[in-house]
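Lab meeting tomorrow. Please check the following:
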Amino acid sequence: MTGRRVEERVVMHSISCSRLERERIRALAEREGVSMSQLLVDRALGRNPPARVKNPPRLVLSEDEQRALLETVRAVGEAVRALEGTAEAPGFAEALRVLFEVRLDAMTRSGHHGTMTRWLDQVLRDSRAARIEEEVYRRNRPKDAT
């Protein structure tokens, strides 16, 4: 507790939010180096401290990231090839949908779920973003999560 007396921190309050909202809040708090509670209090009171980035972003991909990118590109190729020559051969819109789904799945699996949700919000600007986010989460959640 930064400079506050312990007795000042006695009021507790629970909040209701979706699992995805909680994960987004947790990721933001982690990125800023504070607890979820402190982040919520600061934002609710209009205090937006500068982000305390633990690790600055890198400008190159690690070997694991390169492998993940290669796997994503291969998955895209396989998904599109599987549709070619069938009655469901993709038109432009279907090919874009396949590419979009593969990319969203890869972002979620690689820990970039927050970036994915920001992109969805920016592109769609309506309730479809939340529905797609929930679908991607369900497809990619760890097997032991229920």
In short: Residues 63-140 form one domain. The two ends are 34 Å apart (CA to CA). Residues 119 and 125 are 10 Å apart (CA to CA).
